[in-house]
Amino acid sequence: MLHRPLITMTTDFGYDDPFVGVMKGVMYSINPLLNIVDLTHNINPQGIQEAAFTIGMNYRYFPAKAIHLVVVDPGVGSGRRPLLAVSGEHYFIGPDNGVFSCIFGQGPKDLTVVHITSEHFFLKKDSPTFQGRDVFSPCAAWLSTGLEIDEFGEVIEDYHTIHLPVTVRQDDRSLKGEVILMDRFGNAMTNIKKTEIEDLRGVLPEGRLKIFLNGREIPLRKYYSQDDDRSLSALINSSGYLELFVYRGSAAPEYNIRRGDAVEILLS
Amino acid sequence: MLHRPLITMTTDFGYDDPFVGVMKGVMYSINPLLNIVDLTHNINPQGIQEAAFTIGMNYRYFPAKAIHLVVVDPGVGSGRRPLLAVSGEHYFIGPDNGVFSCIFGQGPKDLTVVHITSEHFFLKKDSPTFQGRDVFSPCAAWLSTGLEIDEFGEVIEDYHTIHLPVTVRQDDRSLKGEVILMDRFGNAMTNIKKTEIEDLRGVLPEGRLKIFLNGREIPLRKYYSQDDDRSLSALINSSGYLELFVYRGSAAPEYNIRRGDAVEILLS
Amino acid sequence: MLHRPLITMTTDFGYDDPFVGVMKGVMYSINPLLNIVDLTHNINPQGIQEAAFTIGMNYRYFPAKAIHLVVVDPGVGSGRRPLLAVSGEHYFIGPDNGVFSCIFGQGPKDLTVVHITSEHFFLKKDSPTFQGRDVFSPCAAWLSTGLEIDEFGEVIEDYHTIHLPVTVRQDDRSLKGEVILMDRFGNAMTNIKKTEIEDLRGVLPEGRLKIFLNGREIPLRKYYSQDDDRSLSALINSSGYLELFVYRGSAAPEYNIRRGDAVEILLS
Question: ipTM for the complex?
Answer without folding.
Answer: 0.94
